[in-house]
């Protein structure tokens, strides 16, 4: 017996047990409502998706072509439409996730208004957005299943048994829109206890994966801004452990932790690491400090700090801000140490924030990490902060120049120019860009590719196009030709926005509750009928 039919049978038996007072409860209606709600709590979502991620990680280890992807979404509706689109075009959601960007939370969701990515927004809005995203994804399940239920009723009314069985099979094998979210907890919004408390909120909202970075929480900067300040390893590891304890407390035994290092672009530290013996983790961190070795106390000025490093006295360079500076050119070595240390202390995945999308650069660091931790895997930020066009054109230019190819027709500093779009260099650069995710997953250990804030940019671009036409000479045609006509012809579900918002689901529920007395919105006078 199918799941659909067995659910109906179970509720029918329950109604019989409860007697005459349940006489108006329709088993099939109750079964439909039950199947429309695949997850009773958001902790159920976290547990389900942790299993999905672990399966995907194992499959990637066996075959690097099986990498995963996501787009950052700043609203539940955007996340919902993304997953509906994925199911429409690809038939399944396998290996497609959502990313929750701290940058977009700060810029778009704070009650303070738009903020830079510096952990100034309310920490609770991160959990609120996770909960909102999953609420919209669950509603997408209900919406799509509701259409299947209506199609089932139509098949029965037509007496088409084969069609009825086909639709029930689709219901029984239904794939949910609910997919993993990689949730950005920034630097933990405080000390390790604060990190633990916030991690619990994110997990309770449905997060199966938490991404945390090694910057100081009160000096946190966007990964693509200057002035980044890192913390000693032990401070960061305490926060990784805090996240793990939060997962374990809530019963998500296989929750995933992404340890992000900003050391490649961070030249500062707020504190000198505690060290107990030469060569320990604190000593290794301190070995990167910039400064001068001294011979005696006469070289110490008022307010100077002196530590013993490499068997000698080191006076670290201290800035007017009180921060300490790392030696120039040590970023990559610090990244490698950060990553190995994180994986050896409870992290599952790595995130290396880079300044450009360059497979060779990423692979150079990852291969060093893999010498110690062979199955090291990355989550990589395909960031809109990179000028992708210029970066790849310059990479092609440099490769050609190295090969001895004549590049005199190109100005390297001006390769962003439209005049290069249809040139051999421009077209090859586009191919490199198109293949970047495949190449980086094969050569540089990238398990998950994400774009942090694409929907921030798509919202701005589409709004600009609509505003330019609507408030200009095109008037209403700007919306009709630029939006509605495309929605209709591309089969975008939102053209029937009342249905997308739950109108038909509500009508059917009203009928379950009140029978023929139900006042429904979807009758002949509903203008949604104009869209077929």
TrEMBL record:
Question: Which keywords has UniProt assigned to this entry?
Answer: Lyase, Magnesium, Metal-binding
Which is a Pfam family this sequence falls into? ICL
Provide the GO MF annotations for this entry: isocitrate lyase activity; metal ion binding
**Can you supply a Gene Ontology BP term from the record?**
carboxylic acid metabolic process
Report if keyword Metal-binding is assigned.
yes
Active site at 222
Query: NCBIfam families, from UniProt?
Result: PRK06498.1 (NF005074)
What protein am I looking at?
Isocitrate lyase
Specify the species.
Litorivivens lipolytica
């Amino acid at each position: 017996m199918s799941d659909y039919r067995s659910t109906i049978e179970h509720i029918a038996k329950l109604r019989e047990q409860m007697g005459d007072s349940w006489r108006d409860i329709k088993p099939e209606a109750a079964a439909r409502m039950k199947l429309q709600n695949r997850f009773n709590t958001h902790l159920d979502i976290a547990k389900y998706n942790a299993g999905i991620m672990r399966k995907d990680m194992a499959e990637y280890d066996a075959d690097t072509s099986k990498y995963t992807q996501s787009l950052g979404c700043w609203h539940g509706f955007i996340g919902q439409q993304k997953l509906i689109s994925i199911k429409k075009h690809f038939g399944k959601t396998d290996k497609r996730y959502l990313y929750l960007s701290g940058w977009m939370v700060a810029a778009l969701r704070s009650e303070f208004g738009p903020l830079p990515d510096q952990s100034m927004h309310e920490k609770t809005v991160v959990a609120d957005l996770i909960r909102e995203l999953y609420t919209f994804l669950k509603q997408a399940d209900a919406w799509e299943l509701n259409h299947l239920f209506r199609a089932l009723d139509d098949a029965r009314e037509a007496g088409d048994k084969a069609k009825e069985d086909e639709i029930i099979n689709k219901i029984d094998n239904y794939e949910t829109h609910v997919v993993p979210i990689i949730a950005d907890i920034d630097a933990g919004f405080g000390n390790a206890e604060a990190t633990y408390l916030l991690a619990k909120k994110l997990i309770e909202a449905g997060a199966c994966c938490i991404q945390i970075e090694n910057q100081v929480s009160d000096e946190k900067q966007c990964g693509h801004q200057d002035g980044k300040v890192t913390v000693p390893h032990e401070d960061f590891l305490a926060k990784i452990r805090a996240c793990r304890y939060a997962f374990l407390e809530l019963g998500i035994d296989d929750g995933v932790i992404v340890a992000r290092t900003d050391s490649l672009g961070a030249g500062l530290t707020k504190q000198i690491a505690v060290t107990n013996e030469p060569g320990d983790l604190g000593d290794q961190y301190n070995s990167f400090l910039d400064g001068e070795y001294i011979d005696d106390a006469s070289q110490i000025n008022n307010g100077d700090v002196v530590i013993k490093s490499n068997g000698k006295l080191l006076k670290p360079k201290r800035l007017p801000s009180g921060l300490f500076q790392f030696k120039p050119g040590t970023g990559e070595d610090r990244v490698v140490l950060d990553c190995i240390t994180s994986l050896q202390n409870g992290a599952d995945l790595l995130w290396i924030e880079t300044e450009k999308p360059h497979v060779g650069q990423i692979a150079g660091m990852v291969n060093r990490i893999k010498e110690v931790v062979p199955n090291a895997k990355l989550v990589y930020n395909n960031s809109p902060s990179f000028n992708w066009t210029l970066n790849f054109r310059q990479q092609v230019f440099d490769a050609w120049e190295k090969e001895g190819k004549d590049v005199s027709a190109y100005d390297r500093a001006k390769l962003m120019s439209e005049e290069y779009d249809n040139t051999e260099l421009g077209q090859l650069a586009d191919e490199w860009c198109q293949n970047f995710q495949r190449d980086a997953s094969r050569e540089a250990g990238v398990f998950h590719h994400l774009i942090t804030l694409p929907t921030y940019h798509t919202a701005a671009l589409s709004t600009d196009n609509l505003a330019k036409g609507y408030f200009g000479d095109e008037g209403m045609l700007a919306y009709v030709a630029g939006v509605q006509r495309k929605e209709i012809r591309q089969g975008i579900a939102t053209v029937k926005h009342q249905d997308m918002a739950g109108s038909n689901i509500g009508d059917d529920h009203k009928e379950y509750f009140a029978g023929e007395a139900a006042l429904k919105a979807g009758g002949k006078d509903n203008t949604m009928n104009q869209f077929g």
